[in-house]
Amino acid sequence: MLDYNAPLRDMRFVLNELIGFERIGQLSGCDEINQELSDAVLEEANKLASEVLAPLNRVGDIEGSQLEGSVVTTPTGWKDAYNSFKDSGWCSLSMDPEYGGQGYPKVIATAVAEMWDSSNMSFSLCPLLTNGAIEAVEQHGDAILKSLYLEKLVSGEWTGTMNLTEPQAGSDLSTVRTKATPSGTHYLIQGQKIYITYGEHDLTDNIIHLVLARTPDAPAGTKGISLFVVPKYLVNSDGSLGDRNDLRCISLEHKLGIHASPTAVMSYGDQGGAVGYLVGEENKGLMYMFTMMNAARHAVGREGMAIAEASYQLALKYAQTRVQGNVIGEPDTTNTIIGHPDVKRMLMLMKSQVEAMRAVNYACAFEYDLAERHNDTDVRAAAERRGDLLTPVVKGWSTEVGQKLTSVGVQIHGGMGFVEETGAAQYLRDSRITTIYEGTTGIQAADLVGRKTLRDGGKAIRELIADMKVTLDLMNGDSDQTLQIIRDSFAQSVDDLEFVVDWLLASADDPRLAAAAASSYLHLAGITCGGWMLARSAVLSALQLKDGTTDRGFYDAKIDAARFYATQVLPETSALRTAIAQGSETIADLGVSSF
Amino acid sequence: MLDYNAPLRDMRFVLNELIGFERIGQLSGCDEINQELSDAVLEEANKLASEVLAPLNRVGDIEGSQLEGSVVTTPTGWKDAYNSFKDSGWCSLSMDPEYGGQGYPKVIATAVAEMWDSSNMSFSLCPLLTNGAIEAVEQHGDAILKSLYLEKLVSGEWTGTMNLTEPQAGSDLSTVRTKATPSGTHYLIQGQKIYITYGEHDLTDNIIHLVLARTPDAPAGTKGISLFVVPKYLVNSDGSLGDRNDLRCISLEHKLGIHASPTAVMSYGDQGGAVGYLVGEENKGLMYMFTMMNAARHAVGREGMAIAEASYQLALKYAQTRVQGNVIGEPDTTNTIIGHPDVKRMLMLMKSQVEAMRAVNYACAFEYDLAERHNDTDVRAAAERRGDLLTPVVKGWSTEVGQKLTSVGVQIHGGMGFVEETGAAQYLRDSRITTIYEGTTGIQAADLVGRKTLRDGGKAIRELIADMKVTLDLMNGDSDQTLQIIRDSFAQSVDDLEFVVDWLLASADDPRLAAAAASSYLHLAGITCGGWMLARSAVLSALQLKDGTTDRGFYDAKIDAARFYATQVLPETSALRTAIAQGSETIADLGVSSF
Fold it and tell me: Which burial class, exposed, middle or buried, applies to B464 when counting CB atoms under 10 A from its CB (0-12, 13-18, 19+)?
């Protein structure tokens, strides 16, 4: 039995039915990508994920990546897996054909990447970070940087990293101290960076570090930070590898989870200075980082959802086979625990929320596809607003929920869940990082309130609410009783969301209130977005059932999930509305002596 | 700086003010226990907890207990710590003076034990399980068993275990297979038991196992299980140690947390049969276990709260010292992260809920004291009903919340929280077992609905609601605006609870509905009980402030916590009410094909 098997039917439902493949096919550059091809790509990816990556997940957890001297060794099997991954072309799936990429839209690449996250999150972080480096060089690098680095990063021959954090500069990067001193055509980099994912490893011949640093005369704060390409091995003008650069990994963190993913402390310039090349212009580094960060945040939200999916699959298998206790009302069955109402509740808590998060996540990716590839300027602009609005929601909400669900996954296993051998606990441990890196949930919430809601006077969020109301109108008066239960519950959540947006805009003169409300607002928005997607799924499914689909079981289950979410999850929005409206002042008023 | 320092002032507040020490002092056998003595006991316990046990917590996590052959070695320092613990008399604090105990009431022993749980949960499990064994022998054993075993268990010279679970018999003990064959004055025990906490260790000369097993002609199911004392070393009639008994530890689990607490797989009777002595009568073993289980469940609820307290202390220290970002509205401060509204929110989420859980937990312990030691029969009976009602709430709610709070503790640390060195992650890992052992949350919820609510037609829960309404009446019309905010929010939760109790009683004819609602009902009851305790704390604190207390900071903070809880936590009860009333049928209707 496979440890993990991608939920291909669910993925195709979101891509082909909920988003609608015809909309994906209309994106510029997608002429040759049809639904059959897309389905085939997903199936191929599942083979690698389920047969190669998933079996290495526990090995990676037990062995971890190890540092000896300044050399990092990845776990048994890691290197072969990476080579298979690279050689099958997965690194370049959504990359620009100009640099050897295959030009697939983000939304399909997202479904594919979900499989890497689910099957082996530690492994998946390596290509994820490389994507960030590619984006930085592609969007902001000059022709020389592009020609020397992009093709090899796109093919996966080299990997990339993002070096932001320093001990004193975490959520607040304005205090970055790493120095970059001009020296001819390059700069000399000196300083220490921490939490560098795959900062050192043995998978490829070279590692391309993207490093934030300050030039000597740079202004203080966020406006004096520049971005540099700092390769582990210098690259000659013909693309061959030159000298070892003056940088090294000086330690690896011992972490709660993702043991196989080396989290490095990197030291630059111990022998005088690591050679670095400026990306774009001086002092614009943080701005460049922020454009990359949207993609990374979206990806981490995807991780939150994907690990919960893997955790769900494991818990479901356990519940289907573990015999224990008498099932109420069914004394003659085999009594596997899936018959117990509370176990069904826990499983559906997982399934329904994973489906909600998946749909929101893919939808967000598709907004970025539209923003980049639609032929209408207004559509592009609206899609960018929507993508930017949804990104902190996808990141903050999906990781918080995902993490809670991996804990539910442990719970369904009972005592076995606490024993590491089972694997349920690893999902809980691995997922625990997702609410922290690429900006904590608090940072996402501040972004959602400040930059994404208050700054445009509520424009983007009101557009979203208006779209939700279109769905409500569509559902209005439907004779299907289940759809009405779903509609009514979703309508209340939309009302809660709208109320809170009004409240936030009205409270904008006291920034402490908005800050106090931010996290609850993020959750409210996430839950409601999830409810929207599941309501639309239910409508689509009801239509399929009415039209006599042969896939009744699948669509019935979609409606079950939507109804469960409507009655068990959506009611939380009213509690959050109350907490915001009545409790934000309470939070803002708390002083140091309250603790 | 100490890793852990007991919140003595908070503990004294609950004991001396909220419960009221005069009520504790009136218990029979407490003539010599006054408030000064009780306070001094807490201070002494804190010395051991903070100076001896807390410093070993991380050592224990890293080293774990190790099995070689059938010998288990506890981590460095464990044996010395156990000897200090035993020699200072902590094992016998609440035990019967007849067997060398000090006769302290449970409520004081609970405050003391909270310190063991907080400072070193792995360590604390050893005396906790011994307590269970003592209770079993004391309540159900014959004179010989009592005379041979009790004094040495009470003094801590020996430890005890509880052997219930077998691979096929976890939550459902009706399928226990371990055999007990009569052989003269004793029985021969054969079978395998799993998840035996401190089933083997090197702390004491002997280990007394309490083992569930079946005699040859026992009826099937729960009514054919008997309880046996099975010592590691046989005990001669003069109390000296005799032969090694035929039992051994064959493996230790590799667990997510509580690494230092050896979780043993025990094999009985490999060489023909371990000598075991019947406790009480044949076939009544499960009933005996259930009486012990109340105490154990209350204790695990206390663990949930206590680890969250430890996690809070660590997070608070971090938030008070970590400098990062600009605090809104306070640009000139030192900018430690405790100034950020979202960090204050997270810290107060921890503090307020820990205080709520502590108060409910101690109050529940005091009900059992009343049930045992009050001179009025009616009071005793009412207290027993209340204690039995509150036990599954204390266990289920406090462990679920406690576990979530340890995750918040990690979150407050940002990236540092994911690094094991910090210690925040260990609290998360350790606490993860609390919702599982001694009956999962689902089992607690089923107990609360079935045995504690429906069986007596709602009598005990309605008594509780009536007492809550007394507090509401008392608060009614108070001119203090903060008290009114707290009152109104609490009134809504009491209304939600009452509504759901009515709904449960009305739905009793469909047991699937009650089972589907059980977990939400448990949370609703727990949150509301916590709200009750904090509302009463706020009333008491307001009185103290009015009376010109010199301890203003303390009482102000108590009101802050109550107000926060009222606006941020209590609103959840309405969401749970909706989920129960509108969603239980949804859950009950889910079929195997929904997943």
Answer: buried
